[in-house]
Write a structure and sequence with these properties.
The chain is an alpha/beta fold and 164 residues long. The protein contains five helices and nine strands; from the N terminus they run E-E-H-E-H-E-H-E-H-E-E-E-H-E. It has a five-stranded mixed beta sheet with strand order 5-4-3-6-7. A two-stranded antiparallel ribbon has the order 1-2. A two-stranded antiparallel ribbon has the order 8-9. A hairpin with a 5-residue loop joins strand 6 and strand 7. The two termini are 19 Å apart.
Length: 164
């Protein structure tokens, strides 16, 4: 299998959140674009990237879009990761055999997919790149007709790039 690319139809899924709720892609896309962030609790690049995703989550009203973190971990590990990084967006646990991850086939962790309300993937980003996160933020702001927020400042003491 190969990583899904821009223009591909996003595979549907239902996964449990660490909050006990079930999350489905179909339901999420009814609200607007959905940012899917695949990661792992023991991934150092994910530990760098996910706090920036939390900034994205906080930057815009969430009534017309959604951010879902999909951790390739059992619920307990996903919950510990979310708590350690103060994540307030929904974090979904995906233990082995990773059916959703296998369907999307992210080339690294983290990998971010943006799924449009039509179900098509409009953006794919692998690893950690501040520029990609800021571009994602600008695209989301444009869709929501809001002023873009820089979620990954160049001068915050963190590296600009780290492969996943």
């Amino acid at each position: 299998m190969a990583t899904l690319t821009t223009g591909a139809q996003a595979p549907g899924f239902t996964l449990p959140g660490i909050d006990g709720q079930a999350y489905t892609l179909d339901e999420a896309t009814r609200r607007g674009p959905v940012v899917l962030a695949f990661g792992k609790s023991d991934c150092r690049t994910c530990a760098l990237a996910f706090p920036y995703l939390e900034r994205l989550h906080q930057a815009y009203p969430r009534d017309r879009w959604q951010l879902l973190g999909i951790l390739q971990d059992p619920t307990e590990d996903a919950r510990a990761f979310a708590q350690a990084h103060a994540l307030t967006f929904p974090v979904l646990a995906e233990p082995e055999p990773w059916p959703v991850s296998r369907a999307y086939d992210p080339e690294a962790t983290p990998t971010i997919f943006v799924v449009e309300p039509s179900g098509r993937i409009s953006r794919v980003s692998a690893g950690f790149q501040k520029g990609d996160l800021n571009d994602l933020s600008a695209d989301l702001a444009r869709q929501l007709e809001l002023v873009p927020v820089v979620v990954a400042p160049a001068d915050d003491g963190k590296p600009a790039f780290r492969p996943g």
